[in-house]
Amino acid sequence: MRYSVDNDRLLQSFLKLTSFDSESYGEREVGEYVTAELKKLGLQVRTDTTDAGFLERHPGSYPNIYAVLPGTGEKKDEEPLLLAAHLDTVSPGRGKKAAVHGDGTITSDGTTVLGADDAAGIASILEALASAIEKGLSHPDIEVLITPAEETFCEGSEHFDYSLLRSKKAIVLDLDGPVGTAANTAPTILSLDIEIIGRAAHAGFAPEDGINALSIAVEALSGLPVGRLASGSTVNFGTIEGGTGKNIVPGRVRITGEVRSHDHSEALRRRDEIFARFEETAKKHGAKAVCGGKEHIRAYLVDEDAAIVKHFYRAAAAVGAEPGALRKTYGGSDANRLNEHGIESLVAACAMENVHTTAERTNIKELAGAAELTLALIAE
Fold first, then answer.
1. What is the pLDDT of residue 324?
2. Could you give the angle at the alpha carbon of 368 between the alpha carbons of 366 and 373, nearest 5°?
3. Lowest-confidence range among 36-40, 64-68, 303-307, 319-323?
4. CA-CA 20 to 30 A from 340: which of 2, 69, 145, 286?
5. Which residue range is the domain that position 35 belongs to?
6. CATH code where residue 227 lies
7. Which member of 27, 150, 155, 360 is catalytic?
8. Final residue belonging to a domain, choices 296, 325, 343
9. Residue 173 in contact with residue 120, Cβ under 8 Å?
10. Given this model, what pLDDT does residue 2 score?
11. Are 127 and 21 in contact (CB under 8 A)?
């Protein structure tokens, strides 16, 4: 078949990729392996793609891997395509041991994640490239981007040198769900870091001398909507810390949380409302609120008529994968960064289930389907 792949080679590649300890900021070993595999395939590979500051802060990490498979045949001068995936896994991701079961299911031993997120994406890309070369398929230039530290709000791709890229469309292989599924929109994610500064005092001898930072924080929180809001945005406060003893009026309390929204301006508005609420409440009680945080990734929406969507549907049809309706994802991916840099990008499902848990799994048939679809993306 035109888009068949070598299932045995694909499986061995996947098992090798999942064998590495590759939690975020500890991807060096798997990064070196992927770099070597791309070079074996004859791609032009660069790893001088990441600013020195990132690698100085995270010496166990690895730079972004950028590679190019030059175009060939009648399609060699057509518009290039970028394929992307990431090196890192979430915790617990050390000492992973993949088990292949009789029905083709692949799991960890239950004590760690499997690492299909995102070894399935990398394995699909490596196998598709190998198969395209072996079959002599005509294709345009294929650019490949494999990133570190994606699970930490796409920090690795934040530091990539985007001037290297020629592609204006991309597929990021990093989504759960059946092969043929793709997401065309993802949210802005803003972190919230709020410190209430009151005044400590002894709770028994002089409570009237204190300004209770915890009480102020509770009052501010009580007036704020949390969870999924009517607009579809989400607000969460996840940690609170402070105080020095049960008999001391707490002089400082720190709260962290996040805002997510598929509408970037809505995310900013929600964040500003939250900050204003804490600042006003603190001021009313003679305290101070210091509000900060970070924009981790920015929302995007790829139109259903975009060239990359049509490309994806053609490839899915070519391998018999039933393309479902484009879906929303409430998590971020490197597609957020790519879209922000003007590269229309979809996130495609690539044979992973129950990600970010020790029940994570994949199966050989779905892995083959993801690799076949990736091969069709290269040649269609």
1. 72
2. 95
3. 319-323
4. 69
5. 7-186+299-379
6. 3.30.70.360
7. 150
8. 296
9. yes
10. 86
11. no
